[in-house]
Structure prediction request, 770 residues.
Amino acid sequence: MKSSDRELIVEKKRWRFAEPPDKLRLRCGESLGPIDVAYETYGELSDGGDNAVLICHALTGDAHVAGKHSHDDHKPGWWDIMVGPGKAIDTDRYFVICSNFIGGCKGSTGPSSINPDTGKPYALDFPMVTVKDMVRVQRALVKECLGIDRLLCVIGGSFGGMQVLQWTIDYPEMVYAAMPIATACRLSALAIAFDEVGRQAIYSDPNWKGGDYYGGKPPHRGLAVARMIGHITYLSAESMHEKFGRGLQDRATVGYDFGPADFQVESYLRHQGDTFVQRFDANTYLYITKAMDYFDLVSDYGTLINAFEGVRSRYLVLSFTGDWLFPTHQSREIVRALQANAVDASFCEVESGYGHDVFLIKNPALEDIIINFLKNCQDGIRGAG
Amino acid sequence: MKSSDRELIVEKKRWRFAEPPDKLRLRCGESLGPIDVAYETYGELSDGGDNAVLICHALTGDAHVAGKHSHDDHKPGWWDIMVGPGKAIDTDRYFVICSNFIGGCKGSTGPSSINPDTGKPYALDFPMVTVKDMVRVQRALVKECLGIDRLLCVIGGSFGGMQVLQWTIDYPEMVYAAMPIATACRLSALAIAFDEVGRQAIYSDPNWKGGDYYGGKPPHRGLAVARMIGHITYLSAESMHEKFGRGLQDRATVGYDFGPADFQVESYLRHQGDTFVQRFDANTYLYITKAMDYFDLVSDYGTLINAFEGVRSRYLVLSFTGDWLFPTHQSREIVRALQANAVDASFCEVESGYGHDVFLIKNPALEDIIINFLKNCQDGIRGAG
Prediction:
């Protein structure tokens, strides 16, 4: 039995901190506490504590990165193709950690959590959280809860990649290596535009009620539209053409009506919207897209070169040819600023027509790159030990 | 006084045809009548009747292509930069015609028109109209109402370009020359996807009420979201970057809230949505995006080469480098199929980072191309007698 065939059963864990009066002071000026952090770990921490890999999830992910919670679970974690025994991020070799970011809706404190001051869900009373705040909470989890002083590698794609960059800037001594994937030091105007339209779709849903929908009907229609918009941006024109083209959905000719989907691509998007609303909270969608829009290493530090002035990690920056939401030139911009600081930064643009989401899809070239980088990092950290 | 400085005052006109029992049989199998066609004309028809230029408008356009309806009008027609005395489509030289397509909401019969059978607006009882139907109505206007046997040129961008292509296929003897701009012989899966999400935004608005909102509150929120989505696709990442970047909207720092727009691009999109709903009908948006999705010369004729088998026009096909909604390869596909039929077809990809909508923006290179093509056509039609 190959190790990659072994079923990985993982446990949902939760850690509480920032208990009042020791609330966490957030970047927006408000304070938050207590804070629950939902997280999962995979594999074993080495005696030297030098094999920990932190994975930062993207907009709609969660702490459940791989494996199943029980043998009956019908679906594994969101990056199960990459993380597990014998896989590229090998849990026989690395101690993998993933936590749901604050503001989330998957176990960590967020707008759907109970506000201890009122006994009701926070809704829009939840303070605005930024990438910096999220990373600060992850650092507390890693250091205070798990007792790890230095991470072998911090890995994340898309919004997860923004967290990776912030980690290396804010806690340079804690990050031996960093792998920001398909990300940017700040969103483009185009990406902000899509985020804003998604938010407008949610605001427009009368069930949203200014965010106070908990206990009632959630704004599923608006959230579904937001998800459909997002989903289009995660694919590429080429992959949509290959996957759907103009294929009709279970019909020989178009329907000349506004009923069932005419085209497969319509049916696919409707399905994406419908399933997403079953697992995601609309207010979290609002908060996290705002955190994404606000992330801006250039305005925070004056220049991107300044932002990376104190970093001490080695980097592997990855982008994908078919990604138009976080196009390659944004990754190159990061690499140039790192290299201007004489930082050890490699860059690879992976060939893929698929689009932004491609890191979630089986890709042997990507796996090889990750395997080699992690192995080199482990050799390095032990040599440097 | 240069002729281009003269103010062009135009009159709204309307023509009625297809009076019952002579209703127009539509492609979907249903019949429609009577049909009102809102149109405008500019300039004078030559004695030989050989200087008529028909302009086909895009998704949200109308018959009012240029000039003003009165001196007090605050805004000229939608292509006033291109059409008028002394302009590229020179109304001192050409007799310009533009009509609102059927299914529209700008004077021609559409879903917001009164259904004579019920005395109430059609709403979703309006039959599905296709590009072929729209062109058939335009042909009736040109031939029966205006008495013109042959058009010097049919011009249109985007959805208007689809009408241009259909014109040359269905009425080859009536079209001396054709100028399809930034268009395609069928939408890509990506473009259908955006159309569908726009429709879903409208369906999701409770004021839509299955289309029966006339006399009540219109589904403005849903239509605004649809417009915002559309608007993003009309721009390019590059032009959004240049126009807005990450500039903040009337504020020094981000707001950390969900109130006023943080970024200029958000404010711009909100404004686009808000103003659009004042001038456009949501049901028309649904019908016309469907007509756009359904347009498919390949499936209609087996192959694109077959589609152009009987055409007799000369073509100038134009695309724009920054257009990702109707990318250049779609225009090239048209040109290749025309050339395979030994048709006189020129192609020009105009350099512009602006995006799909660029033909609506002042562009001297584009003007020169249009001026020369029309002049050559006029020389040709007169030479050909």
In short: The domain at 192-289 of chain A is CATH 1.10.1740.110 (Rna Polymerase Sigma Factor; Chain: A). The longest helix of chain A spans residues 364-384. Chain A has a mean pLDDT of 96. Chain A touches chain B through 58 residues (CB under 8 Å).
